[in-house]
């Protein structure tokens, strides 16, 4: 999981190399705001389902915050309209939203979103001008912003410009990220796999696990257990499942490979591939109930009408 941003830094940039990193960084940022008693908002432009799914993977239940108005999911049409509003109107809109959040009893406002639509239509917001305006607003109000400029949607020259304008960027040092699968360290003997395992990245998964297992075997970390959080692993092919089972089969009797927060479908595949016959392999299944964008908007609308 991405490390929390330093408390004093309230205007932060992230440059994801994959949608898995985008969801990871945004979900952490929004969840921190919910815990801090801030109103949080996500401006959707085709990525809300991804973020909502990652929040569910992280165990963050947003149904209550959606109903109470603490979590606001801004629909795609409003996001795109804002990106084509005059720049001076945006300043007033941010000030108004901060005032609304404080008036509703929240400690501040925190937001993120996808803004690449502004690149695809003449007359859209000039993003560097928007960012300077946002930086001024952050300095003047209890406001936090995570700006997302990912390599999948923005040109490299614009990313370089935006990096120069932002005071901070969360550190990102994945063990592996190939845009399909992201592997990150979450503790001395804990890793997280997010995305999909197939023939293209199966050898890399095995190499990463082998390095970590070697540290556990030598007693450097883990007290005999390597834990892999698979809550965000959506898919694994049969060969990938067999490889995980074989990795456990090859462990000494004093070492355990623990796969936790498995989605039921992934767990069933592992069982069919022999997980039940691998004594050094432990599976922990967790049901998950992610919201889709439409359901999230419906909850928010119902809460406002209550």
TrEMBL record:
<protein>
    <submittedName>
        <fullName>MEDS domain-containing protein</fullName>
    </submittedName>
</protein>
<dbReference type="Pfam" id="PF01740">
    <property type="entry name" value="STAS"/>
</dbReference>
<dbReference type="Pfam" id="PF14417">
    <property type="entry name" value="MEDS"/>
</dbReference>
<dbReference type="InterPro" id="IPR036513">
    <property type="entry name" value="STAS_dom_sf"/>
</dbReference>
<dbReference type="InterPro" id="IPR025847">
    <property type="entry name" value="MEDS_domain"/>
</dbReference>
<dbReference type="InterPro" id="IPR002645">
    <property type="entry name" value="STAS_dom"/>
</dbReference>
<feature type="domain" description="STAS">
    <location>
        <begin position="191"/>
        <end position="274"/>
    </location>
</feature>
């Amino acid at each position: 999981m991405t490390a929390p941003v330093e408390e004093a830094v309230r205007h932060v940039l992230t440059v994801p190399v994959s949608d898995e990193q985008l969801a990871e960084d945004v979900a952490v940022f929004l969840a921190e705001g919910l815990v801090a008693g801030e109103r949080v908002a996500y401006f959707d432009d085709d990525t809300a389902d991804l973020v909502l799914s990652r929040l569910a993977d992280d165990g963050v239940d947003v149904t209550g915050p959606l109903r109470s108005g603490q979590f606001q999911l801004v629909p795609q049409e409003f996001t795109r309209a804002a990106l084509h509003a005059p720049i001076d109107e945006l300043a007033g809109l941010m000030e108004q939203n901060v005032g609304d959040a404080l008036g509703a009893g929240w400690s501040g406002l925190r937001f993120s979103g996808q803004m690449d639509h502004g690149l695809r239509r003449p007359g859209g917001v000039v993003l560097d001008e928007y960012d300077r305006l946002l930086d001024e607003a952050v300095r003047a109000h209890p406001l936090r912003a995570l700006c997302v400029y990912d390599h999948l949607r923005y040109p490299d020259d614009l990313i370089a410009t935006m990096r120069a304008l932002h005071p901070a960027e969360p550190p990102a040092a994945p063990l592996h990220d190939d845009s399909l699968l992201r592997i990150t360290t979450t503790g001395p003997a804990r890793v997280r796999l997010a995305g999909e395992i197939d023939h293209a990245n199966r050898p890399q998964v095995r190499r990463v696990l082998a390095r970590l297992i070697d540290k556990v075997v030598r007693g450097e970390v883990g007290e005999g257990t390597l834990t892999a959080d698979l809550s965000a692993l959506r898919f694994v092919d049969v060969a990938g499942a067999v490889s995980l089972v074989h990795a456990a089969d090859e462990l000494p009797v004093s070492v355990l490979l623990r796969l936790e927060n498995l989605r039921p479908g992934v767990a069933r595949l592992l069982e069919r591939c022999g997980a039940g016959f691998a004594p050094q392999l432990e599976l922990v299944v967790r049901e998950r109930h992610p919201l889709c964008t439409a359901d999230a908007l419906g909850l928010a609308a119902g809460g406002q009408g209550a």
